[in-house]
Structures are given as C-alpha cells and as structure tokens.
Amino acid sequence: MAPALRTLEPSPQQWEARQRQAGRRRDLWAAAAGLVAVGTAVVLGELAASLVSPTVSPVTAVGGAVIDTVPPGVKEWVISVFGTADKLALLGGMALVIAALAALSGVLEVRRRFAGVILIAVFGAVGLVAVLSRADLTANAIPVPVLVALVGIALLRWLIRKLLEWQPPEATAPAAPAEEGMGRGTTPQAPTPPAEDAANETGPARRRFLVALGGTAAVAAVAGVLASTLRGAAAVVSDVRSKLVLPAPAAPEPPVPAGAEIRLAGLSPLVTPNREFYRIDTALRVPLVDPDTWTLKVTGLVEREIELDFATLLAKPMTERHVTIACVSNEVGGDLIGNARWLGWPVRELLAMAGPKAGADMVLSRSTDGWTAGTPLEALTDGRDALLVVGMNGEPLPLEHGFPVRMIVPGLYGYVSATKWVTELKVTRYAYDVAYWTPRGWSERGPIKTSSRIDVPRDGASVQAGTVVFGGVAWAQHTGIGKVELRVNRGDWRQAELAPGISKDTWYQWKLALPLTPGRYEVQVRATALDGVPQVEESAPVAPNGATGYHTVRVDVKS
Ligand SMILES: Nc1nc2c(c(=O)[nH]1)N[C@H]1C(S)=C(S)[C@@H](COP(=O)(O)O)O[C@H]1N2
Ligand SMILES: [Mo]
C-alpha cells in the first residue's frame, strides 16, 4: 500500500482519541435525549394530572413528600436561607435533581441498553410511593407516576435508538491497521469513528435524530403551556373556593343520634370524608366554574323564568342534611356510594318562585359541560330535602364534586338527579326531553334500590375461630331501613344489630357477632326497608336501573 494513502488511515492512537471524542459527543447527545425524554414525560404527567384532578400534581406530590421526610434541621436551614421562597427553592432543587437523573439516564442508556430504563423505572417508583403517601391525593392521581415512567422509558428508548443510528456504538480500534494493510476495501468492516465521517454530519440519520429530539421537545413545550394554563385556571378557582365562607344553615340538621356510628375496624365511616367520596362523571377535565360568573337559569314550562347568581343563592335560608348518594353503576357490594352532610337551598323553593305550569313532570338539570339529568318534578317538590348544594361536609363543594353548585336529591341515583356544576333547570315533560344517559341504555327514572353491604370481614378474608364480628351498611333512601339480617351458608336469617340511621335518607350501619368454628363460610346480608319491603334477592346487573342481589362474602375461619 502506498505510504501516501496510509497517512489517511488513523493510527491506533489517533483512532482511540477520536473514539473517545466521539464517545463524549455521543454522551452529550444522549444526555440531551434523556433530558428531553424525562422532561416530556413529566410535563405530560402534569397535563394528565390537571385533566383528571385539578388539584393534583405529581411534581408537587413528590415535593410534599420531600418536605414531610427531610429532617427538621434541614427544613429550618432551607427556610433560613430561602425564606418565603422556600417552596420555589424546593421546586428548583427538585428540577435540578430530576434534570441530572434524566441526563444520566440518557448516558447510561446509550452506553448500556436498559441501564437508563432501569433508572427511570426507579424514579417512577419513587414518584408513585410519594403520591401514595400523600393524604390529600385522590385515587385519580395514582396512575400518573406510572404513566410518567412508561412515557419516559418509551421516549428514551426511541431517542437513543435514533442516536445510535446516527452515531453507531463504539467499535474497538483495529488492532494494527498498518500491518494488516487496511485499505479502502476493508474499511466498511471496521466501524468508522463518527467524528470523521462527513456523511454523518449531514446525513439522514443525524437529521432523523435531531428531528425526533426537537419534535419531542416541541411537544413538551406545547403540553407544558397547556398544563400550566389549566393549572393556572384551576388555581384561580381553587383559590376562590378556599376563601369562600359558607353561610350557617337556617335549618340545621338535628344532631346525629348517639350510636349511629358503630366502632368496628374496617367498617366504612358513617360520614364519608370528601377525599374518599367516590367520583363519577363524564367530564374528561373537571369543569372550572368561577362563582362570580356562575348563574342558574330556571327555564321551560314556568310562569316566570328566573336567573339566580351565586351571592343571591348564598343569601337564601340554607338547609343542612346528611344524604347518602349512590351511583346506578354500583355493583352489589360496590363502593360507588357515599354519605355526606350537604348544605343547600331547597330546590322546591326556587321552583315555587318560577311556578311550574300544568303538565310539567320533569326537571332537566344541565351542567356547564352540557351533561343533563332528568328528575321527576315530584321528587323536587314533595317536601324531601332536594337541595341546590353549595357545601359538602362543612366545606365548599370540592371542584370534582360540582363546585360551586350541584343538586342532591334523596332517594334517586346520581345519574337522574345529582347534577354537578349545575347551571340550568328546565321544567319540562319526559315526553319532550331526554337526559344524557337515557338514550345510552339507562332507565328514564332511577329510584335507588334498597341494598346492603358487608364491609368486614372482607370477601376472602381469613379470620380466627371464635366470635367473628360482621359489620356493614344498608340503605333505602327516603324510606329508611327497618332491619338487616345475615345468613351463613344459606341457613336461617339472623337479625343484625342495627344502629339508628342519621335519617331515612342516609345509610345505616349494622353489626352482628357470629360464633364460628374453623371452616369455610359463605355469609350473605339482606336489608328490609321500614315499609316492610325487603331488598330484591334475584341478581340483576347495574343496567338499566341498578343492581340487585345479596352481597356475599366468603370467609376462611382458622383455628
Ligand atoms: N355534570 C355532571 N354531573 C353529574 C354527572 C356527570 O357526568 N356530569 N354524573 C352523575 C352521576 S352518574 C353520579 S353517580 C353522581 C356522582 O357524584 P359524585 O362524583 O360527587 O360522587 O354525579 C352525577 N352528576
Ligand atoms: Mo352514577
């Protein structure tokens, strides 16, 4: 081989130097890929969280967990250094840590397949633990850190693959290019150091990587703007909500009867805390309604149309009542049911002001997002505590539960009565109007069916032989519960001890101690309403108007 040509070939030393340089450059791009992948995932997580629950943020959850776990000394030091900017400092610190780990995940991944993936999975798991440890978080938030980790991993793999197509993995230097007489013909076998390959600087592989990286970053930017806009709007409404002072009820509820709450581990609380209250609606994003601009219109078959603003509503004499609401989709034994203390103005008073015309038999209530429920006019005027609700368990309605105003009607499933974010009541006829769920396979009318549930022991539980205490809830809204019975292995029904309900509009707690010897048992519960009508034994699915059947648990009694 001609010496002139040979000088074009790198010596092993040059080769190595170039490899190192190329490796460093690839590491830098890989770090950028890690940053973009993880950053995009975190931003998408914030966006997803702001959609499912306006007050939830995985980043703030992790921040909160950090605040809760750092030793007091560190906390004091941070506050002494940053003062009132301590939250900002925390978020900044977190951003730095996340950025460093993200960049590291890119570098690890480019050097060793799945090394970066594992790092992201680990910090996804840390995020999940942080979210789960937050007492103020709803179940909606749980999937978010998982989503963040999965999206981060997918993006990282994709970007690193593109990077490696542009800058192929390190190759070992040819042992002795000179001696082997390496010529042009053999070059394709030995990987070329990327730094030297002019085609790589302009080639399609480079462009593909840069487009992928830039495109992902652009998606993150758009999602970030969207997330912060949503978060900002939610923050405004949250702020208004937190400053709201609820009026005192003109008609307070009589005190909760002594003994209404049975103390038994595992039994659902008599009054469901707001953050544990089930949530069902069709809203992809929680509607954010500013009470200052909220109005409620009464329209349709009325003598006088009415428009009510929030201040006027708050000035009305308020009634406070516990009412247990349930979803028609609640399976036998399910948890789509909850009991809260609602503060509101009776709907019948508003309707009396409007004056329903003869022939009207339904009120179509409409939410800001267009969702509708059809409630029998009678249920709103027969004297029961059907309320335009502003307060839930002593607080303004949570955003997810209809802030600033929703309807609550004792005795009817939510889909025909409990309109959240309500803005219109149209007095009409069932013959003229259909509500949201009616053409979708659900009955026009939905009175809640008498039912009961065993909370303890749980289905499938193992318990110690001896006296086993069973406990649960039973409901027959607006009629009240007369008795609750249990049977073991389809034997005779035995009457449980029934606590006094708060009112006939709420669920009642019950318990029964049964002596059980070792073995496997099937235990069933049934409730009978105060009018003597027992709950339906035959099993029926939730559609079209509510499940029936006995809740059954199997327990394993151990010696
Ligand atoms: N605006 C609106 N209100 C709604 C719904 C809805 O989809 N949109 N769902 C209803 C249903 S089906 C039920 S069971 C209750 C649930 O109320 P909660 O989420 O406060 O528990 O809200 C009702 N109100
Ligand atoms: Mo529902």
Keywords:
five-stranded mixed beta sheet; globular; Immunoglobulin-like; Sulfite Oxidase, Chain A, domain 2; binds molybdenum atom; 559 residues; binds the ligand Nc1nc2c(c(=O)[nH]1)N[C@H]1C(S)=C(S)[C@@H](COP(=O)(O)O)O[C@H]1N2; alpha+beta; 3 domains
Please tell me about this protein's structure.
The protein is α+β, with helices and mostly antiparallel strands. It has three domains: 203 residues, no CATH class; 167 residues, Oxidoreductase, molybdopterin-binding domain (Sulfite Oxidase, Chain A, domain 2, Alpha-Beta Complex), CATH 3.90.420.10; 108 residues, Immunoglobulin-like (Sandwich), CATH 2.60.40. It has twelve helices and 19 strands. A five-stranded mixed β-sheet has the order 2-1-10-5-6. Strands 3, 4, 7, 8 and 9 form a five-stranded antiparallel β-sheet that branches. A five-stranded mixed β-sheet has the order 12-19-18-14-15, with no helix packed on it. A hairpin with a 5-residue loop joins β14 and β15. The longest helix is centred in the first third of the chain and has 41 residues. The radius of gyration is 32 Å and the shape is globular. Bound molecules: ligand MTE and molybdenum atom. The ligand Nc1nc2c(c(=O)[nH]1)N[C@H]1C(S)=C(S)[C@@H](COP(=O)(O)O)O[C@H]1N2 binds next to loops.
Going by helix content, strand content and strand pairing, the class is alpha+beta
SS strand fraction:
15-25%
Using DSSP, what is the number of strands?
A: 19
The overall pLDDT, averaged over residues, is 90
**Bound ligands, each once:** the ligand Nc1nc2c(c(=O)[nH]1)N[C@H]1C(S)=C(S)[C@@H](COP(=O)(O)O)O[C@H]1N2, molybdenum atom
Number of domains: 3
Largest sheet: 5 strands, mixed
